[in-house]
Amino acid sequence: MLQYLVAGGLKINNYMNNQIIKISEIANLLDINYYGIDSDIDGLNLCNREIISNSVVSYISSEKFISNGISNTKIRGLFVTKEVYEVILKKEGFKRDIAFFIVDYPEVEFYKLHEILYSRTSFYKKFNFESVLGQNCIIHPTSVIEDGVIIGNNVRIGANSVIKKGTVINDNTVVGSCTVIGAEGFQLIYDEFNVPFTVTHVGGTYIGKNVLINDNCTISNALFEGNVIIDDNCKIDSQVHIGHNCKIGKNSVITGNSLLMGTVELKENVWIAPSATVSNKCVVHNNSFVGSMSLVANNISENSRVCGIPAIPVDEYIKIIVQQKKIIKNGRENSKNNK
């Protein structure tokens, strides 16, 4: 079976787990040496992100990320510079069974490995199965449902929309016209010659029950493991972009022209007003409201109402506006008196 029920939601079974590769095989693929334990690896991820796999390879680009890399027991291989490697060895009590690849450009070599694993090996699961369609669905004839998609019951998909492989859409969800779900996320890296290249995304996209995704929206997929998640009962207005690795909690509303950058998390019952932007890795907690045309640059606490650029509590914003009006008024009066 390609689908089964867990906590009332469709899941992809056996198609989300990567195959195993050994540290020594990675070294052979890249034609480099390694130092340490020849562990089994079942994933790649960044050292400062949530890791789902049991044993992953990551990288450390500078000393400030050393604690992230060596404290996470799921990280079993690290790309590091010689300088960072020497700092790690000097750390008191360091006895982790990590393998190290010592290279000049850890980030570049890490992403090169990722691309090689995707293009030349069967390490990553690529959702290569015939799509599953539930009962009573209405799919517009101009829409595209790629292979590797699971769609529940009573789902509606509008004209010219594209549902890309690795996507799960649960019961009673509505997708408007000209929307793309599971779109390739945008991760850009500069190589050792300072030339930019984009990174292939291999994760999925999960849409819960009773979700509305209106017209001209783009919902990205996850970069490495897991899914971009839009949970049950969320409502997303037209022309919304949701970047890679985002998580949208139950009953949340995102209104028109809003932008969620990568790895944003909205908890439950969040409201994003029109044309707002939430910056990378920000968390907006339960029952919070973000005003129109705001820029969220920091985490927003529970039950908050914020607005502005950058977004601050509404009460503070109003005080600033009142003060600015007073300054302008006083300036005009002083100008008149000086004439």
Short description:
The chain is an alpha/beta fold and 339 residues long. It contains five helices and 36 strands. The longest helix is centred in the last third of the chain and has 24 residues.
Task: Characterise the protein shown here.
- There is one protein chain.
- This protein is an alpha/beta fold and 339 residues long.
- It folds into two domains: 21-120, Udp-n-acetylmuramoylalanyl-d-glutamate--2,6- Diaminopimelate Ligase, Chain: A, domain 1 (3-Layer(aba) Sandwich); 132-314, 3 Solenoid (UDP N-Acetylglucosamine Acyltransferase, domain 1), CATH 2.160.10.
- It contains five helices and 36 strands.
- The strands form seven sheets. Strands 10-13-16-21-24-27-30-33-35-36 form a ten-stranded mixed β-sheet. Strands 9-12-15-20-23-26-29-32 form an eight-stranded parallel β-sheet, with no helix packed on it. Strands 11-14-17-22-25-28-31-34 form an eight-stranded parallel β-sheet, with no helix packed on it.
- Strand 6, helix 2 (66-71) and strand 7 form a beta-alpha-beta unit.
- The protein starts with a strand and ends with a helix.
- InterPro entries: Hexapep, Trans_hexapeptide_repeat, Trimer_LpxA-like_sf.
Number of strands: 36
The spatial strand order of the largest sheet comes to 10-13-16-21-24-27-30-33-35-36
CATH superfamily of the largest domain: Hexapeptide repeat proteins
Query: What proportion of the residues is helical, as a percent range?
Result: 10-25%
Q: Provide the low-confidence segments as ranges.
A: 1-8, 12-16
So how many helices? 5
Radius of gyration, taken over Cα atoms and rounded to an integer in Å = 23 Å
Distance between the termini: 84 Å
Please state the second-level CATH architecture of the largest domain. 3 Solenoid
Strand content: 25-35%
Mean pLDDT: 91
CATH C-level class of the largest domain is Mainly Beta
Biggest pleated sheet: 10 strands, mixed
Q: Which structural class best describes the helix and strand composition?
A: alpha/beta
Rough shape? flat
Query: Would you give the CATH topology of the largest domain?
Result: UDP N-Acetylglucosamine Acyltransferase, domain 1
Number of domains: 2
